[in-house]
Amino acid sequence: MHTLFISDLHLCNERPEKLTLFKKLLRGPARKADALYILGDLFEAWAGDDDDTPPHPEIISELAEYTAAGARLYIMRGNRDYLLGQDFAAKTGGHLIDDPAIIKLGGKKTLLMHGDTLCTGDVKYQIYRRIVNNAITIKLFLAMPFSLRAKIWHGIRNLTRKTTQNKSPYIMDVHQPAVAKAMLRNGVFDLIHGHTHKQAIHEFALNGQTARRFVLGDWYERDCVLVADNRGLRLLGVQDYLNSDW
User: Fold this and answer.
1) Positive or negative CA dihedral for 196, 74, 240, 46?
2) CATH of the domain at 131
3) Which of 61, 94, 97, 197 could form a disulfide with 73, with the two C-beta atoms 3.0–4.6 Å apart?
4) Structural domains of the chain, count
């Protein structure tokens, strides 16, 4: 048996080949997994649980079929889809999990995060994140008509895309002090996250022990799945995973 972790798929109509790959994953060996964790940014943009912008209904249908077959699905909100709510969970049969969340993996406590809260060098983004993730802000935003919400949300996305182009990679990456603080606070030595799109496995010393940070890659140019089984944790391309004998 094995457990799967993916993030930053950013699924949308502009990249149909990635939607096709996602379908292959859900219909293939992922159904034999103990669980599938999506750690944020499944969608390129999500303006609320009534957002039926294509290919959202198609994705929801695929996820519902996946869980109806008996597979376990856990979804964490990302910065692109932080408005995912209980209606979405009910439609898909998945379970929304908090950021951060702790699970047992191979008998060890493992910390799961989307990863954007670790980018503490980007002060302006952290302020923006606190504002838009505030419960009152979300309630007020979701009370607006969908057409207005969609216009505002896509306007924000265009603005943040432009500002991101002018930021240094160092500022937008996670900061090690924030990583250490999060892991020590939760009493873990393994962390899995996405957001930065910088696929890698980092090992470092933490309180005299070896700690590991697994960074999930994005599904833009490449694709990535983290597989956890009795051999450990491995980062694979999705197609490589599909081609493996499970």
Assistant:
1) negative
2) 3.60.21.10
3) 94
4) 1
pLDDT per residue over 178-229, tens digit each? 999 999 999 999 999 999 999 999 999 999 999 999 999 999 988 999 999 9
Radius of gyration over every alpha carbon of the chain, rounded to an integer in angstroms: 18
| CB atoms near residue 239 (< 10 Å) | 14
Tally of CB atoms within 10 A around 186: 15
3-state secondary structure of 35: strand
Residues linked to residue 95 through DSSP beta bridges, in sequence order: 74
Domain that holds residue 97: 3-243
Number of Cβ atoms within 10 Å of the Cβ of 104: 8
Cβ 191 vs Cβ 179: under 8 Å: yes
The token duo for 25 is 């994953």
Q: Say what the pLDDT of residue 71 is.
A: 97
Task: Give CA–CA dist 105/112, Å, rounded.
Answer: 11
Q: Are 201 and 215 in contact (CB under 8 A)?
A: yes
